[in-house]
Amino acid sequence: MLHLLYIIAFTVIAFLAIRNLIRSLLNLSIDAQRHYAPAGKASFAASSSSNTRVPHPELLDDTGNPTSEPLLVMKSMTVEDARTQLDALYDASPSNRIDKSEDI
Questions:
Q1: Contact indicator for 81, 75 with CB cutoff of 8 Å
Q2: Number of domains the chain is built from
């Protein structure tokens, strides 16, 4: 009899938890779709300026204008070029100089 009471109690608690989870997810999705007015502006002014987006500061140049150039330029290189550059970095590292002086 006690087992049946535990099963019923935990089933009720599980249903309440799942209902609360679904309600929270629905409230979160509704809040995510709302457009809030920026602080300090009137609601009628916010509706007209909601279409303009402020870019991230890293996308602006020194004068504050948006950049039109690519932010990342990758040069294609062969495997041999990469190996020579990595070998040059390894040979120029301070730990490599210490290892060579110990071998002598």
A1: no
A2: 1
Rounded Cα distance, 14 and 22, in Å: 12
Sorted by sequence, the CB contacts under 8 Å of residue 55 that are 6+ apart come out as 66
pLDDT at site 4: 93
Query: SS3 of 66, please?
Result: strand
Determine the 3-state secondary structure of 52 from DSSP: coil
In a domain, 13, yes or no: yes
Question: The tokens 């997810």 sit on which residue?
Answer: 25
Q: Please check whether residue 14 lies inside any domain of the structure.
A: yes
Q: How far apart are CA 63 and CA 80, in angstroms?
A: 41
pTM above 0.85, yes or no: no
At 60, give phi and psi (nearest 5°).
Answer: -105, 150
Condensed to tens digits (0 to 9), the pLDDT of residues 34-77 reads 776 555 555 554 455 555 677 788 788 888 888 887 777 777 88
Range of 13's domain? 1-33
d(CA 23, CA 31): 12
